[in-house]
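Lab notes, practical 5.
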Amino acid sequence: MTKGDKLKLCFHGIAVTPHTVLESEVGSDISVFITPENIRDAGPADPAVLVYQIEDQVENVSDFSERTTVVSDPANAWLDPVFVPLADDDLVSLDEVGFDDLAVQVITSSGFARGEKLLLRWAATTQSGEVVEHSEEQPITRLGIQSFQIPNPIVLASACGQVQVDYLRTKADGKQDRSEIYIFTLQGKTLRLPAPWITDAVGGTLDPALSRTVVLCGPDTRIKKGFRVTLTWAGTSASGRPHLYQTYRDVSDQLVGQAIAFSVTAKDIAPLIRGRSMSPMRPVMPL
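Output from the prediction step:
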């Protein structure tokens, strides 16, 4: 750290007022005051998670620090936190998530009643400081486990970052209470699919006189039944004019584990004579 850097501390999901590093503090321990309001807003937690980042004077932001944990126990009695099955030691890997939604569960076996409503709240802060939020409300139809599915695009947008999840319960009489906040780290890189293969291309060149060519996507074990694969055929002509063609196929039982074929006709080949084309495959999404 250097003079003028900002130390941004987060107390169990609650941002503490940033501290600007003084010249006298460089190379020394720095004390940051966590207010009673910060502690109350974070709620009870065992453990409460503390992490920080450093932002320099040109707004470059560091990775999140290693975690420190403490027991935080304000007087309020809050509901138990959510459970994330894929979390291992408060860490979720994108390799484990893949292209699936992420399950978040609320245990409703004790103290809950049918007909009550649960509002799940997801807030992620990425390394760059972007905030990704998502919420979903469900009624309790039976007691035991209430399962929420965080859409895959929300999960991918939240990486790499710190994610905090809690829920708000609304009782039949309209009274509300909330859960403790569960915080975990979402790490890894967005998974890429293998590049499409243009079957008639030779040395990266495609004969513009072709009446038709086939583009193969996959195979890839992550592509499952019910997913939709979108092919984008885009490029520029010799004069620089852009051309775009898109199509998709829904994955059936017969296509699982197979290369998925797309036909591209002369209508979309000819405009790119002496030009350049690219054929990315959009990340697979559940329907």
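Observations recorded by the TA: Residues 283-287 have pLDDT under 50 and may be disordered. DSSP finds four helices and 20 strands in the chain.
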